[in-house]
Specification:
Elements: H1 2-63, H2 66-100, H3 108-145, H4 151-169, H5 180-198, H6 224-239, H7 243-263, H8 284-313, H9 318-332, H10 334-345, H11 351-366, H12 368-375, H13 381-411, H14 425-438, H15 443-456, H16 463-487, H17 491-509, H18 513-518, H19 520-540, H20 561-586, H21 594-624, H22 629-632, H23 637-645
Length: 682
């Protein structure tokens, strides 16, 4: 029994093991199947995981607060409406691009109309872009606060809106039109310049007629149609803060055009400096041109520019167009004209300078009303200051030279008289100079200058002061002559000098303004002095010569022909010696006045030649047959007369160019040189 029980027990365990094995195998197969099933379901789970956020977003409004869901639609509509309008305007701006990148001159009114639409669009964008961004930011904030939108979606929106806000705040980058307006305005500026350039052509200066008769070389006024185009361009450019650039272009083109017109006048002399000339006399020709050129420039060129500035910039206001004109005038050359005048005032003091300063004052005074009208505005302050400085320097300089003339004439008294007995340059210069000062050309100007100068010092001026000063100068010249007459060691030369100068004063002052002031008695006195000194001169010089041809002893001489011949030889020899000595000495003397010279020579001939002719006719045969006859009958009657008629002629003078001549400006006594030739006073 026991054995069978064991067998049964072992069998039971085996069955259990087999059953467990099957169970394990079955479990293993199920696990394997489950693993395969899990492996297949992984991608689907991943797909589901990826779709869950969108599903969550889709169902979030369902989970959101009911009131928030109701209000969100209105918020979105209010934000999207302005944004859509902004986008629509952006599209319109891009639609204008083709028109605005074309050339304005093809259709300027149409171009300006399109540009105006662009400006309006940009103003709309400028006014509404910020508002649209703000509304979009508000709706994003609302969606975020009420959890009715996906966070990642909201994050993307917020980032985009932030970029838009930064662009709007950055003015340099915030070109809502992509730079289209800038390009269009540049084209308008170019068109403005081109219109001016094409219609600003200086006319050539004709060289044949005098400047006063010359037709205006100023550019012809711009056509009305061109002015209207310029005004239209200015309107749009000013609206876009481009007015200053337009003014700069206008000034550049028009001032260049005026300079081109002035170039025909050859104004290089305006650049001359004080160091480049020695005195006013060397540039007095330029000073005469200066007055004519300045008048021409002011009355024609600058007058035309003044009117044109008013026409073109009229709508911009008085300050704008006056400022524009002042820049044109300054750049075109008015400052150079004024500076040249100032340079003349800074030159060395000289009597000729007084006349030139009066010429400058006359030119400026003639243009006074034009200057006040053209350059009287606040914008022309630099021109006004230079003009005032020039006028003050001219008046001060002219008055100073005038009141010093008397002193300078008196200082010349210590100089020696001329060795040739002629008229000193001081005398000839002063007589002509004072006549000029009292003439119709200079007296009114000098009077006005002296009145102004004394008024600055709060002193009154009477016209008699001018006349009295000139008369004092003439009296000083007379005293100089009296001193110089006494300065000669040779009485004959002293009389010759006195005769020369008294006649010069009489001849050159008779019938003149100065002569009328001095009076007929003064003139007759000098004429009588001339006659007096002429008589003494002839008596004490050539009048003594015939006495050497005495007939005494020849008529009653009875000593024979040989003795008579010896006496004639002796007297002819003495005559020849005295004649040669006197002729040699006086051949270096000069009598500049032709009428006085011819009359004096005739008187000498009348005093000498008839006596010589008679003597030679009667006694010449006594010596003519002698072997040494030429020693005694040295001169024929014709030769003697010719020699006497050729006396006292001025020496030929080589006229040097004023530009090349160098004046010392002083004589040996260190005084200013007033003794210039009368011809130098032009």
């Amino acid at each position: 029994m026991a054995g069978s029980v064991n067998v049964n027990g072992d069998g039971s365990r085996i069955e259990n093991l087999i059953s467990a094995r099957k169970s394990l195998k079955l479990s293993l197969e199920k696990s394997k199947s489950l693993g395969l099933a899990l492996q297949k379901s992984g991608p689907r789970l991943e797909e589901i995981s990826q779709r869950l956020p969108s599903l969550e977003s889709a169902v979030r409004p369902i989970r959101a607060d009911k009131d928030a869901l109701v209000a969100v639609g209105g918020h979105i509509n209010r934000a999207v409406g302005p944004a859509a309008a902004v986008l629509k305007v952006f599209d319109a701006v891009h639609g204008l691009e083709k028109s605005l990148l074309s050339e304005p001159r093809n259709d300027l009114p149409g171009y300006l109309s399109v540009l105006k639409r662009l400006e309006e669009a940009l103003r709309f964008l400028g006014d509404n872009c910020g508002l649209a961004i703000q509304w979009l930011e508000d709706i994003v904030e609302y969606l975020e606060d009420n959890a009715v939108a996906d966070e990642r979606y909201l994050l993307t929106l917020k980032k985009s809106l932030k970029n838009l806000r930064e662009l709007q705040n950055d003015e340099e980058k915030a070109q809502l039109d992509g730079g289209l307006l800038e390009a269009a305005l540049n084209k308008l500026e170019n068109e403005f310049r081109q219109l001016l350039t094409d219609n600003s052509v200086p006319l050539p200066m004709l060289s044949s007629p005098p400047l006063g008769d010359q037709a205006c070389i100023a550019p012809s006024p711009l056509p009305v149609s061109v002015i209207h185009k310029l005004q239209a361009l200015l309107g749009r450019l000013k609206a876009n803060d481009r007015l200053e650039k337009c003014i700069s272009i206008y000034v550049e083109v028009r001032s260049s055009n005026v300079r081109a017109s002035l170039k025909a006048l050859n104004l290089d002399y305006l650049e001359i400096s004080v160091a480049e000339f020695n005195d006013v006399q060397s540039i007095e020709g330029y000073i005469a041109q200066w007055g004519k050129h300045l008048e021409f420039a002011v009355k024609h060129l600058f007058e035309a520019e003044y009117k044109l500035c008013n026409d073109v910039f009229e709508k911009m206001g008085l300050e704008v167009w006056m400022g524009c004109f002042s820049k044109i005038a300054a750049q075109a050359g008015i400052l150079a004209f004024l500076q040249f005048g100032k340079t003349v005032t800074e030159s060395k003091k000289d009597p000729i300078k007084l006349l030139k300063l009066l010429d400058i004052f006359a030119s400026l005074n003639k243009l006074r009303l034009d200057f006040n009208r053209l350059f009287g505005g606040a914008a022309c302050v630099e021109i006004q200051n230079l003009t005032r400085d020039l006028i003050k320097s001219v008046i001060d300089g002219a008055a100073e030279i005038f009141w010093e003339l008397l002193v300078q004439v008196e200082l010349q008294r210590q100089n020696p008289p001329p060795l040739d007995g002629s008229v000193p340059k001081l005398v000839s210069f002063i007589t002509d100079y004072c006549n000029k000062l009292l003439g119709d050309d200079y007296k009114p100007i000098l009077t006005q200058v002296l009145i102004i100068h004394r008024s600055w010092k709060r002193q009154s001026f009477q016209e008699r002061l001018l006349v009295t000063e000139v008369l004092n100068i003439v009296k000083a010249v007379e005293l100089n002559l009296e001193t110089w007459i006494k300065a000669y060691d040779d009485p004959m030369l002293s009389n010759f000098f006195a005769m020369n100068n008294h006649w010069h004063l009489y001849k050159h002052l008779k019938g003149t303004k100065l002569g009328d002031l001095l009076g007929d008695s003064w003139l007759r006195e000098h004429e009588q002095y001339k006659d007096y000194y002429s008589t003494i001169f002839l008596r004490d010089s050539w009048g003594k010569l015939p006495g050497h041809l005495s007939r005494e002893g020849l008529i009653l001489f009875s000593g024979g022909r040989a003795t008579a011949r010896d006496l004639v030889k002796k007297r002819l020899k003495k005559f020849n010696e005295v004649f040669d000595e006197m002729y040699t000495k006086q051949s270096g003397w000069v009598m500049p006045e032709r009428d006085l010279r011819e009359k004096t020579c005739q008187l000498i001939v009348q005093a000498v030649v008839p006596v010589y002719r008679s003597y030679m006719q009667n006694y010449g045969p006594l010596v003519e047959q002698d072997a040494s006859s030429t020693k005694y009958a040295k001169y024929t009657i014709q030769k003697l007369e010719e020699m006497l008629l050729c006396l006292y002629r001025p020496k030929p003078v080589r006229h040097a160019s004023l530009r090349g001549r160098q004046f010392s400006g002083k004589f040996g006594n260190g005084m200013p040189d007033l003794r210039r030739t009368a011809s130098a006073v032009v």
